[in-house]
Design goal:
Layout: H1 2-26, E1 29-34, E2 38-43, E3 57-71, E4 78-91, E5 98-111, E6 115-122, H2 124-131, E7 141-150, E8 153-158, E9 171-173, E10 180-181, E11 197-198
Parallel strand pairs: 5-9
Antiparallel strand pairs: 1-3, 2-3, 3-6, 4-5, 4-7, 5-11, 6-10, 7-8
């Protein structure tokens, strides 16, 4: 009988431990500010290689994030992860409606109380495919928005309109024109101490 009672006590302790672990994540919270996304054309960087070439234009989409506080408070004042799900509506090159481009990027080692920037890009080839020319044209972008998640809390941002426009059934999802995170571009090493670090895929 004593063995059975001890067994019950052990099971109860395990269940309580699992519950408490769950409530810790359940009640995690964060306060953070998200700016309005900006986008602009930007030339391919000159890395000093002896090549005869003419730099082409990329399109950069960027948003500013500042994590003000996280609960429970990390001892080192850093957030392990900040996840951003990007949505970009571009004009369908066929001339009918819009394509919806998507990209999820996980940022790591993000300092609390400091402004950092996150970005995604359209390559020169993507720009040409969408616009018909090699010069970047912001006119091919209709809207830029997304979802930012910190410690289980999600906030939304959009260049115009109401957040959540990316759920509209009138947008055609496509991966023909990929969005690239900064580490997937020649700008990887540029402005490194200004931008949020990106989690490498393994």
């Amino acid at each position: 009988m004593r063995s059975f009672t001890k067994f019950q006590s052990t099971i109860s302790s395990l269940v309580l431990g699992v519950f408490l672990a769950g409530t810790t994540s359940l009640f995690a919270d964060a306060k953070f500010d998200v700016g309005k996304p900006d986008f602009d054309d930007i030339l391919s960087p000159d890395i000093g290689a002896k090549k005869s070439w003419k730099p082409k234009n990329w399109l950069e989409m960027e948003v500013k994030v500042k994590v003000a506080a996280v609960s429970p408070k990390p001892k080192d004042d850093f957030v392990d992860e900040v996840r951003i799900r990007w949505y970009v509506a571009v004009k369908n090159p066929a001339g009918k409606g819009y394509w919806l481009l998507e990209k999820e990027v996980t940022h790591v080692n993000v300092p609390i109380g400091e402004e950092v920037y996150a970005s995604v890009y359209l390559s020169p080839n993507s720009v040409k495919r969408l616009s018909g020319g090699e010069r970047a044209s912001k006119s091919i972008l209709e809207m830029v928005g997304g979802e930012i998640t910190v410690a289980g809390k999600t906030e939304y941002f959009t260049s115009k309109g109401k957040a959540g426009w990316w759920t509209s059934g009138s947008l055609s999802r496509t991966d023909k024109v990929p969005l690239l995170n900064k580490d997937e571009t020649p700008f990887k090493a540029a402005w490194y101490d200004r931008d949020a670090e990106i989690k490498e895929k393994r």
